[in-house]
Input
Amino acid sequence: MLTHLEKQTFIIGKFNQVIDALLQNLQEKSTSKIILPCSLNDLALQTDNKHKQFYKNIDFCTNDSMLITFFLRHKHKTLIDRVYGPDLMKAVLAKTSKNQVKFKHYFLAPNKDSMQKLAAYFDKNYPQMNYKLNFLPSNITKEEEIVYLKKTLTSQVNFIWIGVGSPKQITLAYWLKTHSSGINIMCVGAAFAFISGHKKQAPNWIRKSGLEWLFRLISEPKRLWKRYLIAIPKYLISLILRCAFRL
Output
């Protein structure tokens, strides 16, 4: 099922149905597509004029946030599963990794350590997968960044996975989309770090409760405090006021 939230197109439903529907929608090769497991932080960022133009180019979203999932369940009065970035990535790789001819993957990691751990994970869990791995160094110029992105496109892959967090991954995806055709660009944020074991993931019961944001805030307060204590609350207050005004 398709639904719209804050101008983004979401594929929603039971988990396996969402994965199948997503892969079906990605069969069209005439244009490149951006796919985003969308969080509340992403919804907040897309209202910022600085990032708005990049978010406009996202083709499909899944509900990465449990709070978004709760809202969609209430709106549609049906069972809707959370399609979380790490789970989406594992599911797509499981369905595509055995076909080395049809599906080729490129992973752009946030750092060398995460890249190496991810390679070990792939070799163990997806030994038949046709893939390449690289990482995007921090503190490089825009020109140097484009060199990395051009190298990604010369690899002639079907899927490009970016795990450097929003809004950075959205700006990278925008450049890749506008300079390519027929590539599926998957923006999966912290999925690389969680899957590789580079960062500790919240226990399942915390993820299901909608309190993962608190676990992540406690785990990385210096990096995430502005996101969870300022940006997202500010967005939610704005959203509530907009809804009240419409009423």
